[in-house]
Each structure stands twice: as C-alpha cells, then as structure tokens.
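In this supplementary section we document a worked example of the pipeline. Step one takes a protein sequence of length 386 as its only input; no multiple sequence alignment statistics are reported here. Step two produces a three-dimensional model, which step three serialises into structure tokens for compact storage. The input and output of this example are shown verbatim.
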Amino acid sequence: MNSKCINFLVTNIIALTIILLLTLFPIYKYWNIFSNPTDMERYEQLYANSQYVLGEASTHKIDDNEVYIYAGYTYIRGDDPTLVNFEHTPLAKYFLGFSYLLTGNSVLLNIPLYFSILLLFYLLASKFIKNKIILYVLIVLIGTQRLFYFNVSQGMLDLPNLFATLLFFNILFSEKKNLILKYLFLGLSLGIFAGTRYPFPSIFLLIIPLLIWAFYKSEFKYLLVTLLSLISTYFATYVIYFKHHSLAQWPKFEWYRFIWFAGNRTIPKFLIFQTIFLGRFLGWWNNEWQTISTWSIVWPITFVGSIVATYKNKFNLKNFVLILYTYGLIIFYSIAAASYDRFLIPIIPYWVILLGIGLDNIGTKSNFLGEIKRSLRSAKSLKDVF
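The serialised model returned by step three reads:
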C-alpha cells in the first residue's frame, strides 16, 4: 500500500467508517435475501408465464426486478441478450448474472457496488464542500433513505446507473496530468452508463457537460479518445450478441429499439413531481393513486433545498456543469413521463450535493447570480467566464 492510499485512509477514516456502516445496514435489513441462494427455477417459471411470453393471457405480471434477474441469468449462460428484456442495454444485467454465477445469489454483489456508490458520492461531494461535518451528514442522508438501501437487495438497473454518473463526474473533475488516460476513462464511464440502461437521450446530459468542459479547458482534441473508448465499451457489452447475429443486423436492432422507446406514449407528463412531493402518483392505466412505499419527506426537502441552495453556489466551470446535469435530468424526467421512485435514485444524490454546497457557502457574501453578472461584465471572451 503506497503512501497516498495510507494518507487517504487516515484523513478520511470517519467517512469510510460511516460508509462501511451504511453498507452493512441493508445486509442486516435484508439478510434473508442475501443469505439464501437465488431460486432461478422460480424466476424461469415466472418469466415463462409472464406477459412477455403469454401476452394478455398471462396470469402473472412479472416485475422489473424479476425480469432483470432472469435476464442476467440467461445472458451469463451465453444466450442472445436481445431475447429477454431487449429494451435496456445488458451490462447491469450481466452484473446480476455474474453475481449468480459467482455466489449463487443474483444480488449479493450489489453490496460492494453500494459501498462504491457511497464512496464515489463522498469523493464527488468533497470536491465542492470543505466542511467535513456537512459531508458526513450528506452521506448519512443518502445511506438512510429506504429508496437506496432497499434497492441494494433488488436486481434493478438504477444503482449501476448512479454508479456510472458518479464515476463520470469524479473523473471529469479530477486533476490527472495524463489527459489521454483521463479522457479514456471518461469514455469508459460513459460506456458503463450506456450499458446499464437504454442511454438515449439521457446520455446527452453527460456528453453536453463533457463538451463544455473540454472546450473551456482547451482539451477538445482528446474527445476522440473518449469517443473511441465509449464505442468500444458499449460494443463490448454486446459481444455475445454477435455470436447470434451478424454485424449488419446491429443497426436494424438499434433502430427497432429506438422506435420502441420513441413510440406513442399515453403516460402523462410531470408525474415525477407527484412522486417527489406526495409520495404517490396517479396511475394512467387505472386512474387510481399509486403509493410509493419508499417515500420520505427528505425528497421534497432536498429537491426544493437544492434549488434554493443554488443561489449560494459558486459560479465556476465545475459547479456549472453539475448544475446543468442535475436540472437537465429533472427536466428530462418531466418530459419523458417518469413516475416511479426508482427514477429518483440517479438524481437525489445530486440534489443533496447542491444543498450541501449551499450550506457550506451560507456564510459567504457571494451568490451564483451575482457571480454570473460580475463574470459577464469583466469577461473579454466566453472562456474568461470560467
């Protein structure tokens, strides 16, 4: 272990202890799930008798958790990844399948994944917030939300998706001297993001901040490295696909999936705000209220708090792109008719960070709008703004 690692462990021992305890909590809470092997025969029967196979004749409507776990099992045994749950990209489901292959339990590897997510959240928040007490409170705020620790026990795609965005922003804001390596890893993180769930158009919420960053840092030429890394990573998640299909069939599949996602939707817009503020949303299929069991008063507080705290944010490139992503994602959710609580997993940590930045800057005289005005008055060019 080198001196940098030792120094990191020593200076962050309290945060690491908190993260470890928060990681242990879902193990304690859902020990019956983690301690028993996954009954894959049951999942196979559930799928065989589900709406995916029998259509309207099915007696059981298989849920996303069940279909993702079964899909991961079929993928890891070498089946075509477009046969079961073609809608979403396969990487997170491969992760579930690998967990089953390695341990006999499809969600056991979610535990180290959750530890990694909390660690990446802490590292990202540390790039904006200097007050350690605020940082510790923010970690606890995330880790004690049932929305997060419950999903550790589930075979869902949202925690891997959050991992990818946290990894992306940690790399983007890093001070690596080797820019080729940095932009290579940025492409890798984008590839992981694209591989965890269908990435269009949400991936542009990461690509646009990257373009802005590269432009203002005069690092535009390195984006070719990112592009090649992104494409390579994305194609790597579909290696098994090419065992069953030719390369010529690939564009047809992607177009079919795009049309499927872009097809006419009857879901009303802005349901996500009902979920955030009420802990329920009006089901469009039966006109009845759907209660969110994981709802917490923390959701509306952190959402509104992040908006208010943005006023006390600092106006610089790093803060700007984080704000752009956070508000861009909630706008996307509004338009794309997101409604379920799981959609909030990739965004609540960013509300919490923005809220923490505001609290960290509460004693300062500067504010976001004032800094924008001063920057625009004094800037000789757009680059000077940042």
